[in-house]
UniProtKB/TrEMBL annotation:
PANTHER family on file: IMIDAZOLONEPROPIONASE, PROTEIN LONG AFTER FAR-RED 3
Source organism phylogeny: Bacteria, Pseudomonadati, Pseudomonadota, Gammaproteobacteria, Vibrionales
Domain of life: Bacteria
Protein name, per record: Amidohydrolase family protein
Protein species of origin: Photobacterium pectinilyticum
Domain (Amidohydrolase) ranges: 96-423
UniProt xrefs under SUPFAM superfamilies: Composite domain of metallo-dependent hydrolases, Metallo-dependent hydrolases
Pfam families per record: Amidohydro_3 (PF07969)
């Protein structure tokens, strides 16, 4: 027994002398930290080490990781959240306009975006991105999604390994557009648009941009290559076609292929159950409500306008749904997207679909946690928990603790990629003079 006690003491002594609390690179204190994880309680401090979250918890607990070279940063009452995704951007077009890879990325970083998606690109644009990656010029993680017309040229190209990052560049799959937009009556609807002299003809529902047989063949080819397909579909008829193709291809959620219906804007509630069965993911954009809400009512009627972008219903059905699909070459106004998801207000001040408004917590998760899942990155991003990437945004206020209408006034103070600051707002109160 005496020998056993001595052995226990020696083991304990060895544990005391072992450095089981390696020095952090940075520690953040004195602010609100929203990890967006359902498994964490109140967090008041966080430490980063080697580009990942090292520890979270109370200030006393996290400060035990402070070393001689650890930088301790005072959040000064500001709020830290996981970095945002930009899921439907046309980054290559923006890069062409700016002709400066660093400045092009900083315009996204200034919105708190740490992972951006470059969708619908051609092989030339993809090769240009690869050159920037090989030159170690990427500040952000870039997920490239070429147009499906490039599949034969790229699927056997040894330069690219689908689904894996190489110097912050990853090719995730392929994209195609099945319909257009309601603003010009090209969203393919199951029921006709409201009667209007601008319609091409009476009982107009629009049409698909390619025959179903062609769409099915493309979808089949992508599935056979075990890649993701990102399908632009605004109208519920386009979504019906995707669902039909999914069943014909014998897709199911257990296959975990995570094909994405980009926009999913005018989907019907009964289509959500098919998303669940087929393993489809809806990538929404609630900012359209502000920009086009009144026009939606005029073109589609109040019922369909109210039901658009049903992220809340998807989440209630335990279906991952992101809110990151702002289209175009410019970076999305992420705070505005957050505000729009919580308020669903038009430019004229009318509420569209009051029952579908998200809580601020849900809205934040739709732009980070669920977005990470959409791109098979939920194991490394989307939450500020130990072991995941130290991708974070510092906001001027806590979206979950202020009046919903004030969310749009929040500012992105700083953007952190893998533990390093890549954007910091200028101390001068002038949004046009943001500086790194």
């Amino acid at each position: 027994m005496r020998y056993l006690c001595v052995l226990v003491l020696l083991v304990l002594s060895g544990c005391d002398s072992t450095d089981d609390t390696p020095d952090a690179d940075t520690i953040y204190i004195n602010g609100t930290i929203l990890t967006l994880s359902a498994h964490t309680e109140k967090v008041t401090a966080i430490s980063f080490k080697n580009g990942k979250v090292q520890a979270i918890g109370t200030r006393i607990g996290v400060m035990r990781h402070q070393g001689d070279i650890t930088e301790v940063i005072d959040l000064d009452g500001n709020t830290m959240i996981p970095g945002f995704f930009a899921g439907n951007s046309e980054f290559s077009k923006h890069l062409e306009q700016t002709a400066d890879i660093e400045q092009a990325q900083l315009s996204f970083a200034s919105q708190g975006i740490t992972t951006l998606v470059d969708i619908g690109i051609n092989s030339t644009e993809l090769v240009a991105l690869l050159q920037h990656a090989n030159a170690n010029e990427l500040l952000l993680d870039i997920i490239a999604i070429p147009n499906v017309s490039e599949i034969e040229a790229l699927v056997d190209n040894d330069q690219f390994t689908f689904g894996l990052y190489n110097n912050k560049l990853k090719v995730a799959g392929f994209s195609l557009a099945l319909d257009g937009d309601a603003s010009d009556y090209t969203a393919w609807m199951a029921y006709p648009y409201q009667e209007n002299p601008a319609l091409p003809k009476q009982n107009w529902r629009s049409e698909p941009q390619l025959p179903f047989s062609t769409f099915y063949s493309v979808f089949q080819l992508v599935v056979e290559n075990e890649l993701q397909l990102f399908i632009h579909a605004m109208g519920d008829a386009a979504i019906d076609a995707i669902i039909q193709a999914g069943y014909d291809l014998k897709l199911n959620a257990e296959q975990n292929q995570r094909h994405v219906v980009v926009m999913s804007r005018y989907m019907r509630n009964n289509q959500l159950q098919h998303y669940t069965k087929l393993g489809l993911i809806g990538c929404f954009d609630t900012s359209n409500i502000y920009q086009q809400g009144e026009d939606d009512i005029e073109k589609l009627g109040l019922r369909r306008a109210n039901g658009q972008s049903p992220i809340k219903q998807a989440l209630e059905d335990s279906l991952p749904a992101s809110n990151i699909c702002f289209p175009g070459p410019m970076a999305a106004d992420t705070v505005f997207s957050l505000w729009s998801a919580v308020n669903r207000v038009t430019a004229e001040g009318e509420i569209i679909g009051s029952g579908l408004r998200l809580t601020p917590q849900q809205a934040l998760q739709a732009m980070s946690t669920h977005a990470a899942f959409q791109f098979f990155e939920d194991g490394s991003k989307g939450e500020l928990v130990p072991g995941k990437q130290a991708d974070a945004v510092i906001l001027s206020a806590n979206p979950t603790a202020i009046a919903p209408g004030l969310i749009k006034d929040i500012k992105v103070i700083e953007t952190i990629k893998q533990g390093k600051t890549i954007f910091r707002r200028s101390a001068i109160v002038d949004d046009s003079s943001d500086a790194q």
